[in-house]
Design a protein that fits this description.
Elements (H helix, E strand, L loop, with lengths): L3 E5 L6 H14 L2 E6 L4 E8 L8 E9 L2 E2 L10 E4 L4 H5 L3 H12 L4 E4 L3 H6 L7 E2 L6 H6 L3 E2 L4 E4 L2 E4 L5 H15 L4
Parallel strand pairs: 1-2, 1-6, 2-5, 6-7, 7-11, 8-9
Antiparallel strand pairs: 3-4, 10-11
């Protein structure tokens, strides 16, 4: 039986930030589950950059089924956690069940990979204080308000926490996360 990794997300998550780690971690041999507020087909989005725009644009992305609801998650069954970005973290941070899941991963020092707006979730459970992180650059002040030191880099590693800015940084993000996973939670 292979080690299990949990991805927590919801509607309006960035398609690439869910599906790239989902596929890459499965390729590595991990059993990957997607959890959301409810078991349903999720609607992801595509964020892109257009000439002349001050920020990213958003278009409909892929749909994908959630394997389980947050209320069904037993964090003890998982060796690591992935937190994608997009707009989903804005509302997911208010979900009590999800906050319990997040806290459990940080309390047990399991590997966590977060990207883009995903750090809004870890900030909601006060798990960024005293850490070095990166995130989508517009969140620099949010990261500082959460007590973190913000670094504008493709990937930032702080213990078992790996953070990244956005989908263009996927290769650096997953390379660093897999280095930690191979040491702390290898595929059996």
């Amino acid at each position: 039986m292979s080690a299990k990794i949990l991805i927590v997300t919801g509607d309006a998550a960035e398609s690439l930030e869910v599906l790239y780690p989902y596929q890459r971690l499965r390729e590595e041999g991990y059993d990957v589950h997607i959890a959301a507020p409810a078991r349903k087909k999720l609607q992801f989005v595509v964020h892109d950059f257009e000439p002349g725009f001050d920020t990213y644009t958003e278009k409909p992305g892929y749909t994908w089924p959630a394997d389980l609801a947050f209320s069904e998650v037993d964090p003890g069954q998982y060796v690591a956690l992935v937190i994608p970005g997009g707009r989903a973290p804005e509302y997911l941070r208010n979900d009590l069940e999800l906050r319990k899941i997040l806290k459990s991963f940080f309390d047990t020092d399991k590997p966590v990979a977060q990207i883009c707006h995903g750090p809004l979730l870890t900030a909601a459970v006060d798990s960024l204080r005293g850490r070095r992180v990166t995130a989508y650059p517009a969140l620099e002040l949010d990261m500082q308000a959460a007590g973190a030191t913000f670094q504008d880099a493709e990937a930032v590693v702080d213990g078992t926490l790996v953070s990244s800015r956005a989908w263009p940084d996927h290769s650096s993000w997953m390379r660093e996360f897999l280095t930690i996973l191979r040491a702390k939670a290898p595929v059996t």
